[in-house]
Specification:
2 domains, Glyas_Bleomycin-R_OHBP_Dase, 16% helix, VOC_core, Glyas_Fos-R_dOase_dom, VOC domain-containing protein, 2,3-Dihydroxybiphenyl 1,2-Dioxygenase, domain 1, Signal recognition particle alu RNA binding heterodimer, srp9/1
C-alpha cells in the first residue's frame, strides 16, 4: 500500500429492532453521548465513542431477523471502574458474564485485563474491560 493511501477506522453500524429502546441502552446503560447525524430522518442515531469514531444505530424495517452471533463477534469498550459498571448493568437488569458464558463472572485475560460480556437489546454482543 502506498504511503498516500492511509486507512483508519471510522464507525461501527448496527441495526435496531426498536430504535428508541436501543438508543436508551447505548446512552443510559453504556453511557455514550448522541451526536448529530446527517440524515435527520429519525431512522438513524449516531453515538460518539471518542477520537472522531462513532457507533451508528439504524432502525431496521420489519420483519426483524434475530441476530445469530456469538460473543466472539463483539464491540468492546473499556472503563476505569469495572465493578461500578457491573453495578450499573445489575441496576438495569442486564445479565453479563465471562467469555465462557458463566453469569455474573469476570474473565481474566492472560495479560491481567478483566472483561465481561453481554448483549444489547438486539442480540449484539458487547465486551467491557478495564484496559484503560
Amino acid at each position: 500500500m502506498s504511503e498516500s493511501v492511509q486507512i483508519k477506522f471510522n464507525h461501527y453500524a448496527i441495526y435496531a429492532r426498536n430504535l428508541e429502546e436501543t438508543n436508551d441502552f447505548y446512552s443510559e446503560v453504556i453511557g455514550l453521548q448522541k451526536i448529530e447525524d446527517p440524515f435527520k430522518d429519525h431512522l438513524h442515531t449516531w453515538f460518539d465513542i471518542g477520537h472522531g469514531l462513532s457507533v451508528h444505530v439504524i432502525a431496521r424495517e420489519q420483519p426483524w431477523k434475530e441476530q445469530k452471533v456469538d460473543r466472539t463477534n463483539h464491540i468492546c469498550f473499556c472503563v476505569k471502574d469495572l465493578e461500578g459498571f457491573m453495578e450499573k448493568l445489575n441496576k438495569h437488569e442486564v445479565p453479563f458474564g465471562d467469555s465462557k458464558g458463566s453469569n455474573g463472572k469476570v474473565n481474566l485475560r492472560p495479560d491481567g485485563i478483566r472483561q465481561i460480556f453481554f448483549q444489547d437489546p438486539n442480540g449484539y454482543w458487547l465486551e467491557i474491560n478495564d484496559d484503560v
